[in-house]
Amino acid sequence: MLRFVVRRMLQMVIALVALSVLLFAWLRSLPGGPVTALLGERGTPESSAQLRQALGLDQPLPVQYWRFVQRALEGDFGISIGVYRGAEAMDVFLTRLPATIELSFFALLLAVTLGIPMGYLAARRHGSPLDTGSVIGSLVGVAVPVFFLAFVLKYFFAIRWNLLPPSGRQSVGIDATHITGFFVLDGVLTGEWDAAWDAFKHLILPAIALASIPFAVIFRITRASVLDVLEEDYVRTARAKGLEGSVIRRRHVMRNALIPVVTTIGLQTGALLAGAVLTETVFNFQGIGQALALGFNTRDYPVLQVLIMMAALIYIVVNLLVDIAYAVIDPRVRTR
Q: Sign of torsion, CA 260 265 268 270?
């Protein structure tokens, strides 16, 4: 098991190094570059040259990359010039991260609590109207773009019917104490139940929109996995022995069918935490996804660097944890 974990960690380090090289090269190939972004239209050749020297952009690329890596390891990605002007880029990420975690948690909770039971029921009633309708619904969930679904939900439930808030994380006029940055949790911890409920209502629409694709993927993987397991010899043997249906489903069917589902959930978790750019932008939800969109619009290179690197790190770490959990569930994985 230890060798398996070490091997996966080495692969994670290699992936991060490769990403850092690509990010370094990509950001420096963008039109204008950081000097133009900082100086704007008022920049002169003399001021541009001075700023390039101050930023070390006049040095050879290997030297620039090594300085970039050193500063990144220290958590120094520079100063924001667009998202939060004058703030440390790392502080922008840390400020925005709780919102994305909170949104991703509720979206994944919704996808898992609906996707696994519905996938199992569809497999148990294979070929029935329930199975057919569920498959069609999952296809729609995958096919419909997230931003389109977000606009539809926002139009009907927030604007037309006025049932839920249209944007933001919490109502402007509400008096709320923020301790952790997770607004629902903060309301529970401080006993401000009105603030917790208000924050939860702001989560409903973006969570539904964000959960649409993970739900469809988890549903289809669960359904296919359960169908495969139901045809296995050990399931037929258990039935021939006269075991109760609940015992067969719990010990033999679901336990084995959930192995690929665990991997799928981990992949979806990493993707959600990496930043729901479209969903957060539509609902003006102040997470790292919206900050990434603002960073592109304002050419905020320091913020882009930290958001992309940290999003990739989150994705890789989550997948490492999934690999370890997968190896614990199925020991055969450790030898591959």
A: negative
pLDDT, one tens digit per residue, over 241-267 is 777 767 777 777 887 888 888 888 888
d(CA 49, CA 105): 46
Nearest to 156 by CA among 103, 209, 115, 114: 209
Q: Per-residue DSSP letters for 139-154? A: HHHHHS-HHHHHHHHI
Amino acid, single-letter form, for residue 45: P
Are the C-beta atoms of residues 93 and 280 closer than 8 Å to each other?
Answer: no
CB 334 within 8 A of CB 327: yes
Nearest Cα to 71, choosing from 22, 118, 20?
20
d(CA 50, CA 57): 10
* Domain annotation for the chain: domains and CATH numbers: 2-73 (no CATH), 93-335 (1.10.3720.10)
Give CA–CA dist 134/83, Å, rounded.
42
Closest Cα to residue 254, out of 225, 234, 274? 225
Helix (H, G, I), strand (E, B) or coil at 37: helix
pTM over 0.85: yes
Q: Which residues of the chain have pLDDT under 70?
A: 30-43, 51, 54-56, 245, 274-275, 329-336
The CA–CA distances, whole Å, from 269 to 38, 60, 111, 243 equal: 35, 39, 11, 36
Cα 228 from Cα 67, distance rounded (Å)? 52
The per-residue pLDDT for range 33-70, each reduced to its tens digit, is 666 666 666 667 777 777 677 666 778 888 888 888 89
Report CA torsion sign: 196, 282, 319, 216: positive
3-class secondary structure, 226: helix
